[in-house]
Amino acid sequence: MTATTEVKPLLNAKGPRLLWLDLTRKCQLNCIHCYNASGPQGTHGTMSRENWISVLDQASDAGITHVQFIGGEPTLHPDFLELLEHTLTVGIQAEVFSNLVHVSESCWELLQRPGVALATSYYSDQAGEHDAMTRRRSHARTRANIARAVRLGIPMRAGIIAASGARHIEETRRDLGSLGVTRVGVDRVREFGRGSGGEAPDAANLCGRCGDGRASIGPDGRVAPCVFSTWMGVGNVQLAPLHLILTGVAMAEANAVIRRAAGKEDDCQPRCYPNQTPCYPAQTPCTPKGDFPTPCQPDLAECYPGFPSDPCGPGR
Ligand code: SF4
Fold this sequence. Notes:
globular; 25% helix; single chain; 9-stranded mixed beta sheet; disordered C terminus; alpha/beta; binds iron/sulfur cluster
């Protein structure tokens, strides 16, 4: 525990346990499908180092068990290394979602610490097809760093984003396997940011489970149900304590909108929170239906984005 809050732990009560720390909109790449339109011109936003440290302290006190560093390219954030180290210090596990274009030696050192995992997007075994997605010659660097991560024993997963017309999914999967990556998911381009083709964001394109056991915090401190639903801001950590935002009315309302849009308003069975009655969030009317899955998966095994079948993992 830290001295920053006096909140009750959320671990066995209602509230997210996974936070996406969406650090920045800056990225070396400029992918055609990027769901939050990051790129070389992006900024690190208004969150200070102290703001992010405070978020991590509050998250730990609130019973958050996992964070994912994402962006943009999170390793480009000037405080990334310190924030990752602080995450481990307060007892939270971290996954770093990186494009793996460039990884500094000090970053490699930290990535090898227990409790840290890596994730990346890999678009094709064909350099030309991959680079057409990233709009920069990046395939060779990313591939080499995937191989290095595996050699160093860093838990590693990769997502193949199937762009319209992509032809090499199975070959790409085999290529990743040849590098030693066994946790491989395939996702489609999400209709957000540059992937939206200019359309306004639509909650119907979300997986329907955002905000249920997870939330994201953006470079401006805005909290949203997930990294795809950033237009549904439910509070700002620069203005209010994290636990009040996560358990607040705005978050519950955003969740209800998402469930309705996904046609899941009756599907409020707390798959990952079997001890919660009524189910999280406090949706009214909302009656948990059926028995809890057996075995129950209290550690977000079903929906934590470290799992390839996860429909809500960021495919970027
Ligand atoms: S999709 Fe990822 S790697 Fe590509 S521009 Fe966006 S943040 Fe950067």
